[in-house]
Specification:
GO terms for molecular function: kinase activity. It is built from six helices and eleven strands. By secondary structure, it is α+β, with helices and mostly antiparallel strands. It has two domains: 145 residues, Sandwich (Immunoglobulin-like); 49 residues. A hairpin with a 2-residue loop joins β2 and β3. It is rod-shaped. 15% of the residues are buried. The structure holds 2-acetamido-2-deoxy-beta-D-glucopyranose (4 copies). The site of one 2-acetamido-2-deoxy-beta-D-glucopyranose has 8 residues, from β6 and β10.
């Protein structure tokens, strides 16, 4: 029998080889967990339940198809993920924003291209409204992961959000450092309007001062004008008198001399 030719050692080696191959194949069917925690779902949807996008390598198409509305006071989204089966999984990430005027470029704390950790991990993405427009902004987070046995085929996960932005509200209000981070445009406008009021008042003050100065100047000028004319008349009279006297005296002198 051929089986008889297989010595115990070789049989063990064959078994070992088969086991190793099976393990490798198992490892290659890398899978993933990707979900939003119940606390964050409660903030967004008011329901305390985890929202699974990928569970144990199974894509939840229903969850991915659902556009979650992000209210104005929420700007931080947290996602939890883990590569299963003890094997790290490469990913590519990109974020599309529907209206760049209303929403600042989203900031997230993972790289665009890296590996999904094998331990439970989380990452965040921050959606900051510019405060320029009141509108709904479509945000699509695209993750590309090789989730099938063949590493060639990648699975594209599109996680969709609709962020509500309000005109005059920069970032989230009253959420964590929202008070510190985002200065309300309304306050800026209020500051601007007080400045305008100050400028108006000071302009009015300057105008009143100019008017008062002109009035005083005119009054002084008028008051000065009367004594001046009087003096001129007086001097004119005295000149005439002196001239008269001189002429008289002059007249007299020649007359006396003559
Ligand atoms: C994930 O799948 C593995 C086998 O494919 C199974 O043993 C495990 O219980 C599953 N876990 C969950 C949370 O569904
Ligand atoms: C990520 O993108 C790079 C090129 O941009 C590509 O080579 C790589 O295969 C992609 N990886 C995944 C998991 O899609
Ligand atoms: C991203 O930020 C969150 C909150 O600050 C933190 O819990 C998480 O560990 C960070 N993730 C990475 C990959 O840095
Ligand atoms: C990989 O993709 C090709 C075409 O895009 C498809 O024919 C093939 O069945 C896919 N393989 C797996 C394992 O999904």
């Amino acid at each position: 029998h051929p089986e008889c030719r297989c010595n115990p050692c070789l049989c063990k080696m064959r078994l070992c080889f088969v086991l190793v191959v099976m393990a490798v194949v198992d490892q290659c069917s890398s899978s993933l967990n990707l979900y939003v925690d119940s606390d964050d779902v409660k903030k967004l949807l008011g329901v305390s339940s985890q929202l699974w996008y990928v569970q144990n390598g199974t894509v939840n198409k229903y969850a991915l198809g659902y556009v979650v509305v992000v209210p104005p006071h929420v700007d931080l989204l947290t996602f939890h993920w883990q590569a299963l089966g003890g094997m790290t999984m490469p990913y590519n990430m990109s974020v599309q924003v529907g209206n760049r005027e209303a929403l600042a470029p989203p900031v997230y704390n993972i790289s665009d291209q890296s590996i999904v950790p094998t331990y439970p991990s989380s990452w965040t993405i921050r959606l900051i409204c510019t405060g320029k427009l009141t509108t709904q902004v479509d945000v699509t987070i695209t993750l590309k992961v090789p989730m099938s046995t063949s590493l060639v085929n990648t699975t594209t996960l599109n996680i969709r959000r609709k962020k509500i932005c309000l005109r005059g509200k920069v970032g989230g209000i009253a959420e964590r450092e929202g008070e510190v981070g985002g200065i309300s445009v309304e306050i800026l406008e209020a500051r601007h309007s007080t400045t305008v009021v100050y400028i108006t008042i000071s302009c009015l003050g300057v105008f009143l001062l100019v008017v008062a100065f002109l009035a005083i100047f005119n009054h002084i000028k008028n008051n000065k004008a009367r004594p001046n004319t009087g003096r001129r008349r007086g001097t004119g009279a005295s000149e005439q008198r002196t001239v008269g006297r001189s002429t008289a005296s002059g007249g007299n002198v020649p007359n006396n001399q003559v």
